[in-house]
Fold this protein.
Amino acid sequence: MESAIAEHLKCPRTRHRRVEDDYTPPYPVWSARAPVSVTQVAMGYFGVQSRGPEMQGRACAALMKIARDFALRDGPGHHDLAHYVDADGFDNMVAIAYWHDAAAFARWSATPAIDAWWRSDERLAEGLGYFREIASPRVEHFETMFNTPDRFEGVGVVMGEVSGELQEHGYWGSMRDRIPLSQTDALSPSGTRAVVAGIPAPGQRVRIAGHENIAMIRSGQEWADTTGQERTLYLEDMEPVLREGMEFLRDQGLGIGCYSNRYMHHLDAKGAPLQKSFGLSYWRSLADMERWAESHPTHVAIFGSFMRYVQALNFQLQLRVYHEVSVLKADEQSYEYINCHARSGLMNGLAAT
C-alpha cells in the first residue's frame, strides 16, 4: 500500500491527514501517476449548445468539427464526447480533451485555424452556443482515484502510469488528503468570480475569471460490464439516487457553493450513447464540496445507496467508478462563452437581475 501523493511531490507536512499512519482502507483503489517530467496538465471542455431537435444536426456537425481538430499538431492525448440537458432545457454536446503538457495545449489552441474559427463572427450567427472551459492544474493541485487499475478515464489516460493500492481513501476528508498541495496549504478560496468581457446573455461573447482555489470534480461510472443482480441494482436503485443528487446541484447548487453541475452521458464517435456517465461540477471551494459530501441529504443518499450496492455484492464489482479533483489557482482557469444562455457553466448566477 502506498500514498496517493507521488514520492517526488511529498514534502514535510504542516497540515495533518485525517487518518493515522496505520490506517487500512476497506477496499482497494488506485491513482494515475505521471512521470516526474510532467508538471502541469490541461483539461478542456469544448461545448456546443442548442435547443430543439431541429438544431441537433447542426450541433452534432459543430461538435465533430471540434473533435477533428484534436488531430492537429499538439492535440490532446485523449478525448471523450458527452451530452447533457441543462436546467434551461438546452442540449449541450461536449468534447472533453486532456493534455499531459499545458504548453502543448497552448500551442494547439493558438493554431491559426483553431483560433480564427473561435474568434470568427460566424460563431454568433449560427443559432448555436459555444463554450470552452479550460483547467490547467499543476500536478500539486489535483488527484485521481479509480476502483480498478486496468482502465482509466479522463486525465488518467494521459498520465501514463498507475500507483499501487492507495491508503488515503474510504474516509471523509480523503479527497483533500490525496491532493499534494494539502500537505502545507488549507486550499481556502479567495476572491470572487468576475465577468471580464461581455454580458452573460445570448448574443454575447463572455469571458469569466475564476478566483483562487475553485474546486472542480469529474466523478464517473461505467456499467457496461455489469450483469444480473448488479446491473439491476445499479440501474434501478443506485442511478436514480445519483441522478437526483446531480439535479439538485444543477438546479439549487448555488446556495451551497456549487457554481455549476452537469450530469453527462458519454457518446461514441457517431453520437450514440454509451453505458458511461459522469458529473462535472465547479465549487467555490473544496470545503464547500466536502460539506455537501459529508452532510447534505442528497449526497448522504448517494453514499448510502452505493454502500448498499457494494455490500450486496460483497465488494465484488463490475461497475467501474472514478474521479478526478482539482483545486485551481486563478491562473489555471479560463472560461469563455459565445451566444450561450446566462446560466451556462461559470456564468451561472452572474447575470444582472
